[in-house]
């Protein structure tokens, strides 16, 4: 009996302790991230003055040094995999997908500068479950040569930025191409790093060119190695010589844009392919990947990121269990937005719209001179914008806010949730700001923006619960490294680079007015971006200009966010609701049944060739006898005086909008064969093409031709295996379906079963894959205009006319013109405009007058390219 009482008392005591821990756990557990999420000025997250001062003081008072982590063989087949620096978000996501596919852990050493400029990429890494550590501020090499103060400043700034973004400070530091001297280790320790990391083996991407090479690489690995992949090359440290000032960079001849883009794409592609080969080889060799911190000499590093008192203890687990049980017992079920699919709660960075409009947004009211300058510029340009204002700014600068409202601009609310803030607290702060706006300024808004820092799920939930919209940005004009820039040209070169020729429909551009040293710089950027990245989208010629022709509707406008969001006729859901996609599209045209017995017969019906594609050139796997049965003309069989305008690849709004305007102006249809690799960066443009009544066909995802001429052997060879090619085709088609799968033209789907092979090259394997994937027609064409090589408009017009007319001046019936929608095809729109204008002026009886047809009206069920009589009956 006494034992039972003792047990009962003990259970009661433990229960009380657990309840205490449950309610007072914050007393025992120190949250990571400290007060860093309370930072309201991104500039402070770069300078980190307090942290720098504290670190320098530690160096004076202590000789403690960080330890060095190197590979360590613990008797198991393990390696630690690291990725050093950051590359573009798409490439990082592909790496994350590969790590998930092969079930490998990794440690990402991220530099502070890139983290601040693209925090979402770092958030994605964290969400994927990988470790995030410090790669210094900009990943420079030879850091041992720098002064102590410079090193401390570099480490501290990077550390603070990563804490802001991830709410957790890294414990490890990595400096490639740097010697870890005692001085450097002392600086690292003072800046909060327990250890620095030294790589054993770097992956040579170019040498990892096959699975055999990957196997060889892994065979030479020692268990316990630290294997690193450089995603960003180390920069040389900048040092100023005494008595000299920094010089302006020399203007040098640069390679063309095409070469630069190809080089960048190739580098990223090589890296991703090398990583996959490495992971395959590691899996085959039964290696597992662990975090770098697992190779530490002791467990202090791991413990430093956790609680010192209750880490992994029975009490914490019991408290967690008690919390779950008590919550389920005493809390009524509540459906917050987070309980719905995550993609229903998202930050809007691109408004899903086909309206030719771009929103400008602004934040930061502290500098009245800049605000007044911006308002004046917007007024002169006739622009209305959206200004996001924090509650503290409403109270501190009411007159400034009233001026903004009086100028006709839209107002949204800027919020910055504090560290550890709950759903209800964030919700109340939004409600409080909305109340002030309504009562004191007569403004109601449902637009919310978190100006910087990673947007948490709680923030999304709170915003959604109030039926508000969380607004982000596609282009963040102000970046920390630009603070002291003096001209718009300097900023433009780094924000847009050489590949972003224009902005796109619905892409949100954000300006911060309280940052630059030069008070006129934001105003200059407002004007310059409009001039170079918005106005250049319009079709402007000496004979047709939006300024003088009211029917020229090719110009994009700049509008407030809310105004664009409220235009329901232009807004669409992306990805489209699969329930609204016709069954034929969802099933990817799988009504077509082709096997080895009828393959050649069906191919001859469905292949519209090109006279330059022959047995010797870009055609593989077919016998000479087979090829005799395939079309070489590239013409649609018809008695109509009709031609077909087709456009390949992909481009920016600056190129494609001009083509769309010309087609709209002359009321003619086109077929756009879409290269989908980058199409999801601008889905609005693809949606616009379809909604304006044009056919959409496929042109692959990565533009890999089915067959190439091997320069070494001089023989034709395939670029991909059938499985790989089929996957590419499916990926490409799915991207198109997600954007335009629900669009119909006169009752027919805009997304067709048409495919144009890259470089017009075909192989038997590729054609089989096309049919198996669900494509119905392979369309090359009768005239390759080579418009991307054209030197001027007259030259291109002559080329097109050669494709349209016979020597006698009559229409080549059924001619298919192969053109391009890329930014390199600079004269295509103007040449077509002149040609179509001249054609319209001709009498209907003129034998040279043509009409422009829609391919989907001619390539109907039963059409046969090999049997002209059957085709012409259709």
UniProtKB/TrEMBL annotation:
Transmembrane annotation, as ranges: 7-24
Single Gene Ontology BP annotation: carbohydrate metabolic process
PROSITE patterns recorded: NODB (PS51677)
Swiss-Prot/TrEMBL keywords: Membrane, Transmembrane, Transmembrane helix
Alphabetized CDD domains for the sequence: CE4_NodB_like_6s_7s
A Pfam family of this chain: Polysacc_deac_1
Gene Ontology MF terms in the entry: hydrolase activity, acting on carbon-nitrogen (but not peptide) bonds
Sequence segments annotated as region (Disordered): 700-721
Protein name: Polysaccharide deacetylase
